[in-house]
Design a protein that fits this description.
Length: 522
């Protein structure tokens, strides 16, 4: 590796050792990563001690994912050093990192759908005997790991039959197939239930007692306070400061992260419920995920859906949008009975659904931002001419440029592929799509998964503005504060049914959580 700033690596290490008084478990010195036209990480100095949870905190695009990708061996630095137990190492690949006991659980999954859980967990590290695979031993090892994590999954289940939350569990379990020295967790609770999150935190505390160093990325302040020891803040690819997790206030962290004051995270919303936008009675889907649910949503209000993963809250919205087949029930949209909703027709009627999994369902990752924004409105002016017969590149470019400016897309490059943007900016691409035509009803399904506090506040303001302008909003969220602070009515789902409808001051944490599970006899 080349020297940085005219100071030799050995000198840098000596200075670092004098500051800390001891060698860290994992350390970076001047770590830098350049891509064409952009420096994603700029001379990053970072230290992870054994037995600590070190939180990486920063806005989307701050360099967190770039840093952990190099520590996990998935990416090579342009310059700088990585040290493990005081020795300079060159992590030429993920396998090299795992040989040292460094394992990462990335936000974007790396599972093979057609393979079983056990096969995915031990892919590349299959147990063998005299050159032959040992599938029975592999299944037994996988079962032991899953049980130790209290993940109720069968090793023989194919990954393509799992929910996103269950796939997240498999990704976490993969990290425990060998002895760990460093565990990297990137937004690990984004798809987990409260119970699963509690089990993960218990596991983290157990690993700390075994001197495992844990690098943890999250945007959830409550998680930082609960499990974090130290926090390193990044901004624009640069190191800003390392602070104590428990003594640092939320305001201080946000100020360090953004370099500006964010103010109140949740906006004040004046709800003015008007005419009925959506009325659904006794909806049942063919796959059984929704089983007799009835819901109403009016213009000028934000209705929340809460419930555990798999409760049916997302499936309900997908069925109304035409993305999931309906067995029976009545759907009335803007006064019109809809026998069998189809997505194209529902879009034209003014119904927009923004899915929770932006990479899988929401965006075309290998297509430009421009196309991802305009795709829902190519049949209308100014995106097309003569009723959708011809596309208008000029009209499309004009509207897309206005929307990327309005939502502060970073970088503001509409021809850049969606997959090249950070998670928060990918989310903005979907939000921009909802402004390309007049939508009377918009479903936001987990709108802030994996986005930073600043972007989160901007999304909340965006939703509040749409509501104030008379749109009907359906907010589906596993982040309970969103339901508590943004909605005027909330439905709690349990096993495909509505367990409770809460209105106004009834929407409390206790009332919502008490309906997450089956109620016993009165």
């Amino acid at each position: 590796m080349q020297e940085l700033g005219g100071i030799s690596p050995s000198k840098r290490l000596e200075e670092s050792a004098r500051r800390d008084g001891a060698c860290s478990l994992l350390e970076t010195v001047g770590l830098t990563k350049d891509y064409p036209g952009i420096r994603a990480l700029d001379e990053m100095n970072f230290k992870l001690n054994a037995g600590e949870v070190h939180v990486l905190f920063g806005e989307n695009g701050a360099g967190k994912s770039t840093l952990i990708s190099m520590l996990a061996g998935a990416n090579m630095p342009t310059a700088g050093q990585i040290l493990f137990n005081g020795n300079i190492v060159e992590l030429a690949g993920v396998h090299a990192a795992r040989e040292l006991g460094i394992s990462a659980v990335f936000q974007e999954f790396s599972l093979i759908p057609q393979m079983t859980i056990a096969e995915n967990m031990f892919l590349g590290a299959e147990p063998t005997k005299k050159g032959f695979l040992q599938p029975k031993a592999q299944r037994e090892n996988a079962k032991e790991i899953l049980e130790s994590l209290d993940f109720h999954l069968s090793p023989t289940t194919r990954v393509d039959n799992l929910t996103r939350a269950e796939q997240q569990m498999v990704e976490i379990a993969k990290a425990f197939r060998s002895n760990l020295s460093v565990l990297i967790l990137d937004e690990p609770t984004a798809s987990l239930t409260n119970h699963e999150t509690e089990q993960l935190f218990k596991l983290i505390n157990r690993l700390k007692t075994q001197n495992v160093g844990i690098i943890y990325i999250t945007h959830r302040m409550a998680e930082i306070k609960e499990i974090g020891d130290r926090i390193t803040i990044l901004r624009d690819g640069k190191y800003i400061e390392t602070v104590d997790a428990r003594s640092s206030s939320e305001d201080k962290l946000v100020d360090l992260m953004t370099g500006r004051e964010i103010g109140q995270i949740f906006p004040n919303i004046n709800f003015e419920p008007g005419e009925m936008a959506l009325e659904v009675d006794d909806l049942i889907t063919i796959d059984g995920s929704v089983n007799g649910a009835s819901v109403t949503v009016r213009r000028g209000e934000i209705v929340g859906f809460a419930g555990l993963v798999g409760s049916g809250k997302s499936k309900f919205a997908q069925a109304c949008f035409g993305a999931l087949d309906i067995e029976s029930g009545s759907i009335t949209f803007k006064g019109e009975k809809i026998a069998k909703p189809k997505t194209k027709a529902m879009l034209k009627r003014g119904f927009m659904y923004l899915p929770s999994d932006r990479r899988k369902d929401g965006l075309m990752m290998m297509r430009p931002a421009r196309e991802n924004i305009s795709i829902a409105s190519l049949d209308i002016a100014p995106f097309s001419k003569l009723g959708g017969v011809f596309l208008s590149k000029k009209g499309e470019a004009k509207i897309v440029d206005q929307l990327t400016e309005r939502l502060n897309l970073s970088p503001r490059k509409s021809e850049r592929d969606a997959g090249m943007f950070s998670g928060g900016n990918q989310q903005k691409l979907m939000l921009a799509r909802s402004l390309t035509r007049k939508f009377d009803f918009i479903v936001f399904d987990e709108p802030t998964v994996g986005v930073d506090v600043g972007t989160r506040a901007a999304i909340y303001e965006f939703i509040a503005e749409l509501c104030a302008n008379g749109a009907a909003i359906l907010l589906i969220s596993s982040d309970l504060p969103e339901v508590l602070n943004l909605t005027n009515r909330a439905y709690v789902f349990y096993q495909g049914r509505i367990q409770a409808e809460l209105v106004g001051e009834e929407i409390t944490e206790e009332n919502v959580l008490s309906n997450f599970f089956e109620k016993g006899p009165a």
